[in-house]
Structure formats: C-alpha cells, structure tokens
Amino acid sequence: MPTVLPRPVIKGFNPANTSGCVLYLPLWKTSLQGSSIRSPDKYGHLCTVIGTVYGSQGRTYDGDDEITGSDAAFPAGASDRTVLMWVKPDGLKDYQAFFHYGTNTAHDAFSFTSHFGANTDRLYVGIYLKNAIAASDAGAIVAGEWALIGLSLESGTDVVYYKNGIAIGSTVIADSTVATTILSSFTIGDSWNVGDTFDGIIGEVMLYSRILTQGDVMRVYQATIWRYL
Question: What is the rounded CA–CA span in Å between residue 217 and residue 167?
C-alpha cells in the first residue's frame, strides 16, 4: 500500500484564531524565549517558565522543568474541551504529564498524561484521584518521535484520544467520577503529583472549549506537521 502523505501546509493557519481556542502556546516562537511569556491568543495568559530550554522546535524538558500559568477562561466543571500537543518524548514512563489544570482536590483537576505499568506508550486522562477506566490504543507515544497527541472530553465523561489526526481509542468515565474541574492554574510538562514530569520536547499546546471533530484535529495536524516531521 502506498504511503499516504500529509497535505501541503495550510498557509495562514493560526490555532489562536480557531473557534473555541482558549490557550495557544507555540513554544518554538522566538518571541517566547524568556522566563516570563504570554500566550499569543486573545486571552494572553501570562506564563512562568521554570528550567525548560528554548529551541527552534519548542521547549526541552529534562524531568525537572515546567511552564505554569493562570487557567482563567479554561473549560470548567464538566464543560467540553479538547487539548492537542506536539510532543517528542525522550522515553516512556509512568504518568508522564503533558498538561494539567485545575485544583488538586476530589476530582476537580484535569490531567493529560501517559499511562502506567506496561502501558506507558498509551495516553491517559486523569481526574484527581479518579481516573478514566481505559487508556488510548497502544503506540500513542514513541520515544524519540514527534507526534500530535490529544484528547477530547465531552460532558465530563466521554473521552476520545488522538494521534496525528486519527482517533486511537475512546472511553466513558463512570458517572461517579464525572470531571468537575475547578479552575486554579495550569502546568505544562508536570502535574500536581511528584514524579509525573515530562522528559523531551514540547512544541506547542492548544486547548479548546469545545469538542473538535476528527476532521478538525486532522486539519490541525496537516497545518502544523511541517515544523516537526
């Protein structure tokens, strides 16, 4: 079967101008090299950079770094949301945190991480002390390889995982553990839990206050792939 190549770059694409975008952080952007940066979306989230090293494809994390900021305007409660990130992990490990926001009590925080045990190549949604009952398909993340990974969370219960524009698994969170996110702050490359840090490069982060369809996610992939692959 012939290899299916991505479509040409979609010129002029800017996630910040896409409907429902509440956070866009292109960590490769030269204007975001400092230790205090502001997201180039309409909300202008002020972020503190701790330890990450700037590069032309994003920020390198060494397992002890993070970027933090205010999660004002993020989806709260059981509101719909979609998060997409370009990442290149150095390796695989338990609960490697990509993105986290909200408080850290009951099930009031939202985390996007790798899975654990024998499934560290799978994506996982975490709700503080309450976790989804299934992770993504295997092979979602591969050490040393770039991928656009993400998930959508609908009504606080229905999860769909994505890799490179394709759905790679879904799950329904039990009603007793519905996500009811209480806003507080966000972290990229780490979470509330000690040891959940990310190792590798994070290129860009996109958060939407709506459910993106697989077609939407594929368009993001096709418009951004040129920088990483």
Answer: 9
Residues in the chain: 229
Would you place residue 128 in the very low, low, confident or very high pLDDT band (cuts 50, 70, 90)?
low
Structure tokens at 111: 């985390």
Q: Per-domain residue ranges for the chain? A: 25-227
How far apart, in Å, are the Cα atoms of 155 and each of 58, 96, 178, 180?
32, 25, 8, 10
Query: What b/e readout covers 118-144, taking b as 16+ CB neighbours within 10 angstroms?
Result: ebbbbbbbbbbebbbebbbbeebbeee
Mean residue pLDDT across the chain: 87
The structure's pTM equals 0.91
Integer Cα distance of 85 and 45 in angstroms: 17
**Kind and range of the H or E run holding 40:** none
**Plot region of 196 (φ>0 → left; ψ -120 to 50 → alpha; else → beta):** alpha
Q: Which long-range contacts (CB under 8 A, 24 or more apart) does 171-177 make?
A: 171/125, 171/132, 171/133, 171/134, 171/135, 172/133, 173/125, 173/127, 173/130, 173/132, 173/133, 174/133, 176/130, 177/107, 177/127, 177/130, 177/131
Terminal C-alpha separation, the chain: 21
3-state secondary structure of 176: helix
d(CA 175, CA 152): 17
Question: What is the Cα–Cα distance from 217 to 199, expressed in whole angstroms?
Answer: 25
Q: Domain 25-227: state its class.
A: mainly beta
